[in-house]
Design goal:
4 helices; alpha/beta
């Protein structure tokens, strides 16, 4: 399924598909529905043997030009320019701003692994996934999905994250829900 988290709502261009790949929070409220509808879908699918795999965005938040306000799928306030996402909460301390060595903070050379993993992908605010706090917030979100019955994840933008950071987050994930899966079942992870 498409990313189920709260995302920015864009009007220029009018609500493009890629707005869903610009998180504002990890609230379960996207243009596909609210948390209650999400839980109902996952429950109904699992009850008839259909597993749900969620697309998750943990590399970044919204674009740096996302503005400030409550133009998000749940109506939560955020400020992209200040790197302030209080619904998570994330602040400027939780981003890779000082690690990137390019002029504008974006990837300029895809042959440079440090730029690819420490700089912004098309101006999307790059999370500092090496920080324990960021790892814990990401794992908390993914575990919430697992606990609701999600069977696995498509990890967006994996080449833009350090393997050790991903390994740390994956190590924090719960086993799948005993309501639908055998004891000890682990989430299936597909990396983009």
């Amino acid at each position: 399924i498409s990313p189920p988290n709260e995302h920015i709502v864009l009007n220029e261009p009018w609500q493009p598909w890629w707005q869903r790949y610009q998180p504002i929070s990890y609230n379960l409220c996207s243009r596909s529905g609210n948390e209650e509808e999400f839980i109902d879908m996952v429950t109904r699918c699992n009850n008839v043997g259909v597993n749900i795999y969620a697309d998750v965005i943990i590399n970044h938040m919204s674009g740096s030009s996302g503005g400030e306000g409550n133009h998000s799928s749940c109506g939560s306030w955020f400020s992209a320019s200040k790197k302030d996402f209080p619904s998570v909460p994330y602040s400027a301390w939780d981003f890779n701003s000082n690690k990137c060595k390019t002029r504008n903070g974006d990837i300029e050379n895809y042959g440079d692994i440090f730029q690819v993993r420490d700089c912004q992908l098309v101006s999307l605010l790059d999370l500092a996934l090496e920080k324990n706090y960021v790892r814990s917030k990401v794992a908390e979100y993914m575990n919430r999905l697992i606990d609701l019955g999600v069977a696995g994840f498509r990890m967006d933008a994996c080449k833009h994250m350090w393997p050790g950071d991903l390994e740390n987050v994956y190590g924090r994930l719960h086993n799948l829900s005993l309501r639908w899966f055998p004891n000890g079942s682990r989430p299936f992870i597909f990396q983009e």
